Amino acid sequence: MESEQLYHRGYSRNSYNSIASASSDEELLDGAGVVMDFHTTEDDNLLDGDASSPGSHYAMSNGGGAPSSSTHLLDFLEEPIPGVGTYDDFHTIDWVREKCKDRERHRKINSKKKESAWEFTKSLYDAWSGWLVVTLTGLASGALAGLIDIAADWMNDLKEGVCLSAMWFNHEQCCWTSNETTFAERDKCPQWKSWAELILGQAEVSRRGMYIYWALSFAFLAVCLVKVFAPYACGSGIPEIKTILSGFIIRGYLGKWTLMIKTVTLVLAVASGLSLGKEGPLVHVACCCGNIFSYLFPKYSKNEAKKREVLSAASAAGVSVAFGAPIGGVLFSLEEVSYYFPLKTLWRSFFAALVAAFVLRSINPFGNSRLVLFYVEYHTPWYLFELIPFILLGVFGGLWGAFFIRANIAWCRRRKSTRFGKYPVLEVILVAAITAVVAFPNPYTRQNTSELIKELFTDCGPLESSQLCQYRSQMNGSKAFTDNPNRPAGPGVYAAMWQLCLALIFKIIMTIFTFGLKVPSGLFIPSMAIGAIAGRIVGIAVEQLAYYHHDWFLFKEWCEVGADCITPGLYAMVGAAACLGGVTRMTVSLVVIVFELTGGLEYIVPLMAAVMTSKWVGDAFGREGIYEAHIRLNGYPFLDAKEEFTHTTLAREVMRPRRCDPPLAVLTQDDLSVEDLQGVINETSYNGFPVIVSKESQRLVGFALRRDITIAIENARRKQEGIMLNSRVYFTQHAPTLPADSPRPLKLRSILDMSPFTVTDHTPMEIVVDIFRKLGLRQCLVTHNGRLLGIITKKDILRHMAQMANQDPESIMFN
């Protein structure tokens, strides 16, 4: 065995009941915001271990169990053993076994449905349970998203002041019914009072002080709730969702406490003014809903693979309510998060996204009859020349994405390796204080990020009062709002450009340090804001260039005087898509999401050009997106299907045991006693054992998991008479010939996997990696001429891939 173990796997539970029970969510995560303790469990540690490792011994009672009346009714060997086939926390599911279980359940239901009307009704319920669970998930996701949107909007305005006539109204709603509001000062009304007016007078220092006070209060409350009640509620959740959908078990990550705390703290975190968004965490919220509702249906609660189909649909519903993009949500689930996505999951994902969007539209949280705050429509066509600035925005997005991933991962790694990471509350308070102090003077950093994106996306018209629309009128040279699209920029536009440049620098710096804090933090909105700022700056620059130099050959053909040439808001939208694509490396789903945001088919080509350019530029510096980078940082056992394996190694070079290791721990099919089996379990920490015919032949019979063996022995001691330490254990169909005075034997054939996946020692690792990815294997046995040689686990593959990439294989596993 290897001299240095990553950690030692073993149970410290003294009874079957504790083994079968689920873990709580008290462990912390550290990745895209999370510190997860992997020191007592492991996913695929089938060979790593140490006989002296703490917690690796089972407390098994000696001798036979108490007599049970069930022994005389049914032989224990023919009964299904409770607990067998379940998984411990931080383990990977066996996709093949789960699919086999589901097929067997389906055959059983079909064989019984003609026996009676009740059985037929049960079969109908089973067939429709998938649609019921995604309907409930969509309803809950839409309702929670509407609640979060309304609450976040209200609490964001609460930092500025309060509505005296109705405290639950935000600033805009408070002034709706006022008769004293003028068009020029539409945001001012007697019913709305700032905190400075109410408490400290009109001083600017008072306004700033109250703004900082509320920002720090919201951030402090959010991080305390997360730390005390639900540590899994921090971060965006998408890296962990990707890992869970690949088959990893993280108990409590999608539980009810996580859902409740994430919903509340997401509102607080957004209202605190931190450089984060609520769109990414909405995917986590929707998946929590899907996980909770799946326990209402045995078809999904008892099968981890089927449950992941529901979670795939839930992630589509999450993006649907986050961006008002049902089709984009389905494509996001398919392209970005899902590991296994059959056709029926595509249909159910579409239906869940539809239901969620319908509920959100019914709630109408923004009061504009739209699903998102920054819905825009453009009526100006784009011209071929504009592809040049669009592609330049794509280059900027790719460079920003590559820079952000490296900087954020470096900071998160430093946080984990220094004492600073031990004080998450202090870190959140410090970042929130810096954000509030620096953001207050600039109106583009002080306002809510979604409001900022809305302002940057919106095209200028006669009803717009933004500084970005303060163009000079050609008639009298004074500031005016005009419909004339070909107009020179006024002082307000130039002042706004300087403020946007400062806001761009501020957002870039603060987003690097904010993503990964121990509060719910999404990355979609900050990335889109950075791209929208850059795009609006470029759009105004091109617009003024076209105005002052309309006789250039670039503009002469299509941008005549008085023509509607340049739409700066379109540049903001393209820049937002490019920066989000550079960070996440999304392509098709991102284009569809932004297309659904704008409702204009004619802008598909600019979006595609910018997003693909962004991906190509980003891939030149590293192929993984921010979510894959955080998965790797946190050491999750995730085999990325997008990553190619091009090396020429063979299975025998990766399998264990190696030449310097002890022999492979195996079980023989019919000559072990309970005491021998208990000794093998106590002396090793492997999660499974190959079963062979005999030590001499090494012919493979099957594979038995450590957890299943332990549960079966404990269950047999309680339910069977005469099970002693010297009872013979056999995995064959028929019991071996035993002396007459021998104790009753124990048959464990029902827990044996009779068809484990095997490869020969000369199989290329490229094929082995492909098998693991496409079948979701936990382990694969290696044979030579039918004789067992060794074993390859998912962890062995991850370690080997890191070694081939010139990385320390021991430094990246389960940090």
From TrEMBL:
- Where would I find the CBS domain in this sequence? 655-721, 752-810
**Where is it located?**
Endosome membrane; Membrane
- Region entry Disordered, spans: 43-64
Cross-referenced Pfam families, in alphabetical order?
A: CBS, Voltage_CLC
UniProt xrefs under PROSITE patterns: CBS
What is the protein name given in its UniProt record?
Chloride channel protein
* Predominant place of localization: membrane
Q: How is this protein situated with respect to the membrane?
A: Multi-pass membrane protein
- Residues spanning the membrane: 128-148, 211-233, 253-274, 281-298, 310-334, 383-405, 425-444, 496-517, 529-550, 570-595
Q: Per its UniProt record, what InterPro entries does this chain match?
A: CBS_dom, CBS_dom_sf, Cl-channel_core, ClC
Family in the record: Belongs to the chloride channel (TC 2.A.49) family.
Q: What are the record keywords, sorted?
A: Antiport, ATP-binding, CBS domain, Chloride, Endosome, Ion transport, Membrane, Nucleotide-binding, Repeat, Transmembrane, Transmembrane helix, Transport
Please list the GO terms describing molecular function.
antiporter activity; ATP binding; voltage-gated chloride channel activity
* GO cellular component terms attached to this protein's record: early endosome; endosome membrane; Golgi apparatus; plasma membrane; synaptic vesicle
Per its UniProt record, what SUPFAM superfamilies does this chain match? CBS-domain pair, Clc chloride channel
